[in-house]
Specification:
Strand order of the largest sheet: 3-2-1-4-5-6
Pfam families: F420_oxidored
Domain Pyrroline-5-carboxylate reductase catalytic N-terminal: 3-91
Number of domains: 1
CATH superfamily: NAD(P)-binding Rossmann-like Domain
Shape: globular
Keywords: Oxidoreductase
CATH topology: Rossmann fold
Oligomer: single chain
InterPro entries: NAD(P)-bd_dom_sf (IPR036291), P5C_Rdtase_cat_N (IPR028939), STEAP_metalloreductase (IPR051267)
Largest sheet: 6 strands, parallel
Bound molecules: NADP nicotinamide-adenine-dinucleotide phosphate
GO biological process, one term: copper ion import
Mean pLDDT: 97
Length: 200
């Protein structure tokens, strides 16, 4: 598997730290050229490599860590995303449900990435917590995963485990996934819940 993080702000960098901690290769990209991102990327770890957006999206798993409406710009980078998994880490607090055609925000994002398998995840914690070591005494920090394609969730759960998190699958976006979606100015009840799963 190859991984890219699109968006190298607070969440993108937090996730880059998680990859670096486990020595897993990851590409990072934003609208800025790779040379502009390279010093920060290198400071996080030697396996965090800045690339252009076009080169980064060659990865088979792409984590979306851009401001919500920017997903549309990222999606335009390919006419078809077949064969790729998009992990949606964006949130939509304050966006009216009508603006999303009444859909959960990640289902709205999925429409833009034609052909991709979409999983919502890594969106429920503030960046500083997401950046911290997810392994603490007695347990692993929980990340919630949801999506309408169950087969797509399993490899993302594997990635979460490799990064040291404890993945908890919530099911479909409009079912368990609703717990980690903002709707209008209301956060889903699991957003910001920093939970740990004890080693069994
Ligand atoms: N901050 C948090 O604690 C937190 C927690 C959970 C979820 N989230 C969600 O995560 C997403 C990112 O939040 P953030 O706080 O990390 O934002 P941020 O610090 O503002 O970073 C956004 C990043 O996206 C890049 N970007 C913007 N438009 C882009 C485009 N069209 N193509 C490629 N890159 C683009 C920006 O870089 P350039 O300007 O160089 O393009 C920047 O690196 C948001 O949807 C937010 O709701 C945030």
């Amino acid at each position: 598997m190859s991984y890219a993080i699109i968006g190298f702000g607070k969440i993108g960098q937090a996730l880059a730290h998680a990859f670096a901690r486990k020595n897993i290769d990851v590409t990072v990209a934003s609208r800025r050229p790779p040379e502009a991102l390279a010093p920060e990327a290198l400071a996080i770890g030697p396996r965090v490599v800045a690339k252009s957006l076009r080169d980064a999206i060659e990865a088979d798993t792409i984590i979306l860590a851009v401001p919500f409406w920017e997903h549309r710009e990222v999606a335009k980078a390919l006419p078809n995303w077949e064969g790729k998994t998009v992990i949606d880490a964006t949130n939509t607090f304050g966006v009216l449900p009508e603006e999303l055609d009444g859909l959960p925000s990640s289902a709205f994002v999925a429409k833009a990435f034609t052909g991709a398998r979409l999983v919502k995840g890594f969106n429920h914690l503030v960046a500083a917590i997401l950046a911290a070591d997810p392994i603490v005494e007695g347990g692993h920090r929980v990340v919630f995963l949801s999506g309408d394609d169950e087969d797509a969730i399993a490899p993302v759960a594997d990635l979460a485990k490799q990064l040291g998190f404890a993945p908890v699958k919530l099911g479909k976006l409009n079912e368990g996934g609703a717990l980690v979606h903002a709707r209008g100015r209301t956060w889903g009840p699991l957003i910001f819940q920093d939970l740990f799963k004890k080693d069994q």
